[in-house]
Amino acid sequence: MAQDRGALMTELCNDPVMLEHWHPVVSLEELRRHGRCRTMLLDRAVEIVAQGEGAVVRCEAALVGSLVQYGYVWASFGEAPKPLFAVPEFDEADRRFVVTGVFGVQVSAGRAIENFLDMGHFPYVHAGILGEEPHTEVKDYDVEVSQNRDEILATRCRFYQPKAAVSSDAGAEVDYIYRVPHPNCAVLYKSSPMDAARLDVIYIFVQPMGQERIRAHTGMCIIDDASSDLEIRSFQQTIFGQDKPILENQYPRRLPLDPRAETPIRADKSAIAYRRWLASKGLRWGVIPAGV
Amino acid sequence: MMDLAGWHPIAAATDVVRRHVFHGQLLGREVAVWRADDGFVNVWENRCLHRGVRLSMGLNDGRELRCLYHGWRYANRSAGCTYIPAHPADAPARRICNRTYPGVEAAGMIWSAVAPEAEFALPEVLVGTDPLVLRPVSVNAAPGVALSMAEGLVPGGSVARGASVLFGQAGLVVFVQPLDAHRCVLRGVLLRQPEDRIAALRDHDGLLCALREGIEAAGEAAPAPLEVSFQPVDEALGQMPARGVGGGELRVQVTRKWAAAEGIVGVQLRALRGVLPTFQPGAHIDVHLPNGMRRPYSIVNAPGEEGYTIGVKRDDAGRGGSICLHDAVRQGDVLAISAPRNTFPLRRDSERVLLIAGGIGITPMLAMAQALAVQGIAYALHVFARSAAHVPFAERLEGLAVTRHLGLDAAQTGAALSGILSGYAFSHHVYACGPAPMLSAARQIAAAQGWTEEAVHLEYFANPEAIDDSSAFEIALARSAMTLQVPAGRTILQVLQENGVDLPSSCEQGACGTCVCGVLEGDVAHQDVYLSASEHAANDRIMTCVSRAKSARLVLDI
């Protein structure tokens, strides 16, 4: 709608919360294929060039702080960026790490993360895959904001999924745990159809190009020796392809932090915790702060 | 400055086709325009209140609009939310209602206004005409610029009242629909149906396109788009309360009263002004009767239907409410009613739903059956009655999956219920409303056949048990910071109301569930038939109209 158009296009992000974080800019897989990558980060054009095992990131010829972690190049304009969060499963040798794609979306990072945390849309947006009518109930789950780790944790999440196990066509409840360890990154742990005792890891690392424009980097760290990379990738691309038109038709595009901007229900507990957590950090970029 | 009060055409009537949602815009505001199967044209803010997703992507099922993201359903006319699939056991008690704009269909177009100061009046030039609506042509120019330039670009043009240009000789009127401060749509109509329709459409389309080119070629600097802000939802909606409270009184008119069956009248109620609040299947209204009584009646309407229809059985041995409705209330009378409350919500996350109605207990079952039929959920409606002549609302039963069980005695009814309730499986639910002995039988038979307590939903007309009100105890109100004494012979509800504590109530005999209150401390002596055995055992809720304390003191969450 009208008020989103052209707003603040010329201004560069100067929000300290965003500047003091590491942000994903390109997967090593993509970088190795092309040797270099030009993209946007926080309204600035950046160029990533492969160098040895790692990469160099530049913005208008000036060097930008960077590191390589979890299969991605991360960059930050801050002087002392907050250390990157831990995902120990990346180091488990028997897991397969698959980069499932990068998706450009005309939406704010916050809306994309909130969609990733949301189970209620499974039977509607991912019908027949992650959910199926009439099994639409979002059962009560627990959400906590961990003070010492500074992250949101949603546990005891359960949702009915058709064909929940590889071995059976029957639907069953699947367990989920969600972590939001970074304003623009979330990790979900989900019952593995191959190994009942372990959890698959699925992540979304959002690269905020602008306030209303992102690249969403998705991938998995899973226990699966049956599927090919292509199968895993096309599954995740189907899922994200279903989410994208929803995300691009949400108004306003920026995430509203005022509790009265939208109508939460109990199923949205994790989203409410996420909005409050962002507000408590004093974030103003990519969101509509409360009281504006 | 834009005129927010003015009425403008926002679509051709042919844009708003059956089961479609049209994406329109007026003065910077996006609108979702959809026609229900009853012909009503809804013009809503194009944004679901839950997460801001455009409703123009939603599904129009003819009665309700379903948001694509989480399946929230919004009713025709009132735009109120009727169902939230993530919480199928709850009635959306809070008044979640989309922002609406007025919509009028006239002269082959849909007209709307952002903030009208007057009712819609058809522009004089269109009165008495049968116009041919031309293809709309959008223009990148301020509406005011387009209007004044159109006047000069075509010979003989003159700006008529409102935002339109009249071209006298051609019999053409061009309305300028202001999309935004910098964009508009030329909506042309021919005042007379031409002899050669195709040629007329082509010629005038060429004229409007030339008009657009002329206006855009002038290159006037377009103003910045309008700033549109979204109205915040009200404070209660911004939080997550477990339960909402029914609102105040509504005034309605009895538009029809008829003999619906032997001893049963149907009563149709319409709002005196505007649109009645959204109801959900299973909901009831309290009707304030001319004799001073207040009685609850279930709404029998299908989703999205206008007004409320109730069915009332004459009960000569009752307390007088039904006799008053049968004998004293006439068509045309104005009555006060409460907003609908739903203490008998219908889950729609079921694989199969059984609906069992005994006698006048058919009323909530009808609303449920019609909702399930529209939504395509498997269901079976079983109606128990003395004879075919005792089954009301035959016209609504047509087309529903109904089985009639007529003239059965208690033993035969039990046998029929056993047959109906056989074959329980996961995700099956049964709803029953009828006389107490029948419901008790249904509860026992269901339990014996393996139905879980959560899958059995019963609504009693009245509490068949004798109420013991001999105890005396103290109640502490945690949120109101008050301590009150409940003497023998008085109910908690009466004591609360006497002390100015507002708690809605309806049947006042422990059957309807309206006066429920949370219990924080103390042991409850339950005497209601609304809560199930395990809910009684949980000891965390109380029906304040009949239940009392076993302990000397109760702490209530109010």
Keywords:
heterodimer; A: 292 residues; alpha+beta; N-terminal domain of TfIIb; Naphthalene 1,2-dioxygenase Alpha Subunit, Chain A, domain 1; six-stranded antiparallel β-sheet; 19% helix; disordered N terminus; B: 558 residues; Rieske Iron-sulfur Protein; TATA-Binding Protein; Elongation Factor Tu (Ef-tu), domain 3; FNR_nucleotide-bd (chain B); 2Fe-2S iron-sulfur cluster binding domain-containing protein (chain B)
What does this entry look like structurally?
The complex is a heterodimer of chains A (292) and B (558). With 292 residues, chain A is α+β, with helices and mostly antiparallel strands. In chain A, 19% of the residues lie in helices and 37% in strands. In chain A, the strands form 3 sheets. Chain A has a 7-stranded antiparallel sheet with strand order 7-13-12-11-10-9-8, with helices on one face. In chain A, strand 11 (185-191) and strand 12 form a beta hairpin. The longest helix of chain A has 19 residues, at 229-247. Chain A is globular and about 55 Å long. Chain B is an alpha+beta fold and 558 residues long. Chain B has 5 domains: 1-122, Rieske [2Fe-2S] iron-sulphur domain (Rieske Iron-sulfur Protein, 3-layer Sandwich); 129-225, TATA-Binding Protein, CATH 3.30.310; 249-338, Elongation Factor Tu (Ef-tu), domain 3 (Beta Barrel), CATH 2.40.30.10; 352-460, Rossmann fold, CATH 3.40.50; 473-556, Ubiquitin-like (UB roll) (Roll). Chain B is 18% helix and 31% strand. Chain B is built from 10 helices and 35 strands. In chain B, strands 12, 13, 14, 15, 16 and 17 form a 6-stranded antiparallel sheet that branches. A 6-stranded antiparallel sheet of chain B has the order 21-20-23-18-19-22, covered by helices on one side. Chain B has a 5-stranded parallel sheet with strand order 26-25-24-27-28, with helices on both faces. The longest helix of chain B is centred in the middle third of the chain and has 21 residues, at 197-217. Mean pLDDT of chain B is 90; it is low at 240-246. Chain A binds chain B through residues 1-3, 5, 114, 120-121, 123-125, 133-138, 245-246, 249-252, 256, 258-269, 272, and chain B through 28-30, 46-47, 49-54, 57, 68-71, 84-89, 94, 96, 180, 225-230, 232-235, 237-240, 348-351, 377, 427. Chain B: InterPro entries: 2Fe-2S_ferredoxin-like_sf, 2Fe-2S_ferredoxin-type, 2Fe2S_fd_BS, Beta-grasp_dom_sf, FAD-bd_FR_type, FNR_nucleotide-bd, MRET, Riboflavin_synthase-like_b-brl. Chain B: Residues 7-112 form the Rieske domain. Chain B: It holds the Pfam family Fer2. Chain B: Residues 247-347 form the FAD-binding FR-type domain.
